[in-house]
Design a protein that fits this description.
2 copies of one chain form a homodimer. Helix content of chain A is 41%, strand content 24%. In chain A, strand 4 and strand 5 (68-74) form a beta hairpin. In chain A, helix 2 crosses helix 3 (119-145) and helix 5 (174-181) crosses helix 6. Chain A is elongated. Chain A has 221 residues and is α+β, with helices and mostly antiparallel strands. Chain A is built from 7 helices and 11 strands. In chain A, strands 1-8-3-6 form a 4-stranded antiparallel beta sheet. Chain A has a 4-stranded antiparallel beta sheet with strand order 2-7-4-5. The interface between A and B is large, with 45 and 45 residues. Chain A binds a DNA duplex (30 and 30 nucleotides) through helix 6.
DNA sequence: ATCAGAACTTGACGGCCGTCAAGAAATTCA
DNA sequence: TGAATTTCTTGACGGCCGTCAAGTTCTGAT
């Protein structure tokens, strides 16, 4: 099993000294998942905290009608599983590696011990929760009230802003992007073609998008 | 200012003894809001934890196009504002009293002191967070992937299940229910009429609904 | 009890966007 | 590199549901 480092990646341990980090590092277990493999599924017991050491994981739910909804895209340094570190719960979502991914996990009981010892951890976990909650609130509002066109335009500008560049590669297949935005791959193709026709963006091979007119994109309704 | 009791209402303080509860009770501030009044608005500084002592508060966001999205309906004993008890943040949502409402608040610094003294509080807050997150995840998935008909059917059966009765009064105006489900008052009227026509429910005066066929309602797509 | 205003219902209409299908492009893997 | 598979694009079509409008019921304040 590859010995990838995780602990120093994660903001929730940021207040700790290197000695303490080493202690934690000795507790974690290491896992590797090939692209396309499943990390966890709905109804799995949720008994450990997961840290993405390297790679990309999509977390999604299935609706009653079988359609998929992408909730989070976990990147290097992101964590998941905090939801039930204190109560026995089962997962309600699926996790799937989009690329070869290294993951570290800490068992619930071990993590509870850590929180006893280092109270700063619980405060950091609360902050992670808070950010995730606000992000999800915005996503809910957006999918419930705005058009596909507006949601896509927003997604593009936000992604560009996060990467601090006007030209970037879409980090997801259109199918996954579609389930994230609550629409279909076809609609995304069409709207991107529309934006390009309007001169707002330029599409290049390899899912690369160049933004030509941010202001106009943001006005899209 | 009315001296309503709050502290013993709230699950986050459940592990504490009555003496400690009294201490906390002496810290909180009491507020009263008439029906229709605003408790907080977007961009307000978020510097205290809010406990609903009595009444009902709707928490909603505004989308870029001005449309409203109801995120939570706070009832007696619910709390809000945990999101930023540790980081300086501003609110991103609005809070409005739907009925005359009593609220207690605890300032951020006071709450941080409490968490230092009683670590059980932070664990309880984490659990509240977790529940809210799962609820929001389900809501996101539902509005993004299911039809208005299915969402409404689900809402009716869930509400009935929560109240443990087949006949109940809708706790919201159709306008608010519409923004909760991501649709319009007109569509809700139509779908309820459809359900009644199908014999699945019976509508009675005063927003009262009686469920006749739960199983069939749950099969609605 | 009465009345004004809000909330709700119902109808008509149209557009957004999801679905199905087929061909093009891109990616993967031997 | 080349073939197989997946992903993407584009077109045609139709239905869900949002919008506008007008009438009705409900509510709450005087």
């Amino acid at each position: 099993m590859a010995e990838h480092e995780c602990v120093q990646l994660v903001p929730i341990f940021s207040e700790l000294g290197s000695e303490q980090l080493d202690t934690i590092e000795s507790i974690v277990r290491h896992h590797h998942y090939p692209a396309g493999s499943t990390l966890f599924g709905a109804d799995d017991p949720l008994d450990s905290l997961m840290i993405v050491a390297n790679g990309q994981v999509k977390v999604y739910q299935l609706a009653a009608n079988g359609r998929e909804q992408l909730l989070y895209l976990l990147q290097t340094g992101d964590i998941d599983g905090e939801a039930a570190l204190f109560e026995n719960q089962r997962r309600t979502s699926f996790g799937e590696a989009l690329v070869p991914t290294d993951v570290c996990s800490i068992r619930r009981s071990d993590f509870q011990d850590l929180m006893q010892k280092y109270p700063s951890i619980s405060i950091n976990v609360l902050n992670v929760f808070g950010k995730r909650l606000s992000q999800l609130e915005r996503q809910t509002t957006s999918t419930a009230t705005e058009s596909v066109e507006a949601r896509l335009a927003n997604y593009i500008t936000e992604t560009a802003a996060a990467l601090k560049t006007d030209t970037f590669k879409l980090p997801l297949k259109k199918k996954d992007l579609a389930t994230f935005l609550g629409t279909t791959p076809e609609s995304i193709s069409r709207k991107l073609a529309l934006f390009e026709h309007q001169g707002l963006i330029t599409q290049k091979p390899g899912k690369v998008i160049e933004i030509n007119d941010v202001d106009q994109l943001l006005l899209t309704e």
